[in-house]
Amino acid sequence: MTKEPIFDVAQLAHIEIYSPKLEESVAFFREILGMDEVYRQGKSVYMRAYEDHYHNTLIITENDEAGLGHIALRTTSPQALERRVAELEKLGCGIGWIDGDVGHGRAYQFRTPDGHKIELFWDVEYYQAPEDKKTPLLNRPQRRPNRGVPVRRLDHINILAKETNPNVEFLEEALGFKVRERILADDNTDIAAWLSVSNLVHDIAIMGDALGEEGRLHHICYWYGYPQHLSDVADLLIESGYEIEAGPGKHGVTQAYFLYVVEPGGNRVELFGDPGYQIFDPDWKTIEWKGKDLEKAIIWHGSNLPQEFFKYGTPVRKEQPVKA
């Protein structure tokens, strides 16, 4: 019998990353990706892309090593928040309630089986553009910035896990995520899975950690919507002294145009030139890649990904090279 679907989680709302080079990381997102700094508090800087509707979608927090601070998800209602918290407490994975943070109200924090911190909230602050950033395009929160090659909105996050399947099942059963695509090993366990609660192919992706570590970050992703912008930002990155790890190219999984670069703090950032496709079918059947199909799953066209792409994550471990 098919389980009743859960529609309590609406979207990926923001991400916090750690950086040992706070000001350099902020400059990368501001000057290269055209994001705005909207607030500072303590050791954290709050940033946004120009089509993000909420106050912020990225928090960069100073830390002695790079990595993931937390993932934030917004629920579909106050009642949905309470329902999910009740289920999470039954599972015994809760950290507890916080009063709120810059840009949102009270939130419930918990950990995935692999140790990644996630928070759920409902009350959120919508961005209000000051006069010099207002636009006559009324369905856009602010004027398009005129620096760098501006990204438009937050797209997804990709996390690494020591064991993929327990974390995939946790997102499905505790939060209502749906597996849209997956790469399977010969024994049909997940090598990687792409999950969403929205129409996107993925809000969260999970990949097996090649080093067998727990709780690490593979990358965060912001969206352009135009493949041409990947070429534009590639020129800017190279001329600014950054090394592009991979791309531009196109994945088979998600059909997305991509470029990968590591920001100064050490975290990998993916830039989407196109979202691939969106899912509207309520009875979507998970796409499964295995065996001979895998060659086209990772790269549809473009150069192959380097081996360090599958090993490098943050925090950095001694078994992997350190990115400059």
Automatic annotation (TrEMBL):
Q: Which reaction does it catalyse?
A: catechol + O2 = (2Z,4E)-2-hydroxy-6-oxohexa-2,4-dienoate + H(+)
Presence of the UniProt keyword DNA-binding in the record: no
> What's one GO MF term for it?
ferrous iron binding
Which SUPFAM superfamilies does the annotation name?
Answer: Glyoxalase/Bleomycin resistance protein/Dihydroxybiphenyl dioxygenase
Q: Which UniProt keywords apply?
A: Aromatic hydrocarbons catabolism, Dioxygenase, Iron, Metal-binding, Oxidoreductase, Repeat
By sequence similarity, the record places it as follows: Belongs to the extradiol ring-cleavage dioxygenase family.
Q: Which PANTHER family match?
A: GLYOXALASE_BLEOMYCIN RESISTANCE PROTEIN_DIOXYGENASE (PTHR36113:SF1), LYASE, PUTATIVE-RELATED-RELATED (PTHR36113)
Q: Tell me which residues make up the VOC domain.
A: 11-123, 153-274
Domain of life (superkingdom): Bacteria
Give the E.C. number(s).
1.13.11.2
Full protein name: Metapyrocatechase
Keyword match Repeat = yes
Q: Which cofactor does it need?
A: Fe(2+)
